[in-house]
Amino acid sequence: MKTLLGLVASPRKFGNCEIFVKEVYRRLEGSWHLRLIRLPELDIRPCLACYQCLFGSMKCVQKDDLACVLKEMVQADGILVAVPTYFLGANASLKRLLDRGLSFYAHLENLWGKPAVGVAIAGVKGLEGYSKLMVDSFLKLILADHRGSEVVYGALPGEVLLNDDGPAAARRLAKALEHRAASPDPHVPRCPLCGGDTFRFLAHQGINPSNVRRLRCMTCSSEGTLQWNGTSFVVDTVRGEHPLFLTREDAVAHRQWLQSMKDLFLERREELKGVTRAYKDVGTWVRPPQD
Ligand SMILES: Cc1cc2nc3c(=O)[nH]c(=O)nc-3n(C[C@H](O)[C@H](O)[C@H](O)COP(=O)(O)O)c2cc1C
Known about the structure:
The protein is of the alpha/beta class. Strands 1, 2, 3, 4, 5 and 6 form a six-stranded mixed sheet that branches. Strands 7-8-9-10 form a four-stranded antiparallel sheet, with no helix packed on it. 30% of the residues lie in helices and 22% in strands. The protein is built from seven helices and ten strands. The N and C termini lie far apart (53 Å). The structure holds flavin mononucleotide. The site of flavin mononucleotide has 20 residues, from helix 1, strand 3 and strand 5.
C-alpha cells in the first residue's frame, strides 16, 4: 500500500483544505493510505540562517517539529498540499515550513521524483493573489516531481466541493498523482521549461517590437518572451543561471552552490565586515518588554 501525505495548511478543522485533501485521496484508484499533517498546529520556528543544515550531518540545529515533517515527506509515496489564501498569499504555515527549506537538501535523493500536487483555496474568485505561485514554489523547492496545481474557490467550510470546479480539480490532481501530470489547459500561456503560469514582466531592452514582451518565469526563474503569433500568445523561455529545478542536476548544483558560499564568505569576510561595521550603531531596535 502506498502512502499519501496530506499537508493541510489551514487551522480550520473540517475546512475546505482538509476536505479537499480527503476528496483527492478518495479519488485515488490504487491502494493508498492517507497521513495528514495540519501545518499551523506544528512548532516550526523561523530559519536561523546559520546554514548548519548544509554541512556535516546536515541536520537543523533547532529542536522543533521540522524533523517530524521531513520524515513524513521522505517516507511518503506522494505529497498533496492544500493551502487557504490569507490576504492574497498562502497561509503563513506553508511559508514557515518552506523557510526551513535548506533542510530539504539533505533528503534530495529521497525527495527527487516523488509525485506532488497542490491546491490554493480562496474564498473569493479573483482574490487568490499569489497563493498558487506559493504552492508551485513549495512543490518545486521540496525537490519533488511537481505534477500539478490548482486554484479553487470556496469560503464556507465544505463549500469548495459544492460547485463543479472543486470536484473536477480534485479529480485532475488525483489523476496527476497516480499517473503523469494531466495535459495543461492549452489556452493558458505557460513556461515551456517548467509549466509555470506566473510571470513577471521585465523592462524591454533596446527596440522592442510591439507584439513582444520580456518576462521571467516566477516558478523556475527562466527569462524569455511573450509573443502574439497571430493566433495565440506564446511564451518562450531559456534556462537561467540558477534554474529551479529543471533537472536533478540543477538541484544538486544548487546545493553545491549553496555549500560553496561558506568558503566565499570566509574569503570575503574582512571586505564584508568593512561594509557592515559602518552600520553597527545605527537605529534603535524595538523589543517587547520582558516580565
Ligand atoms: C484571515 C483570513 C484571510 C483571508 N484572505 C483571503 C484572501 O485574501 N482572498 C480570498 O479569496 N479569501 C481569503 N480568505 C478566505 C479563505 O481563503 C477561504 O475561506 C478558504 O476556504 C479557507 O480555507 P479553510 O476552510 O481550509 O480554512 C481569508 C480567510 C481568512 C481567515
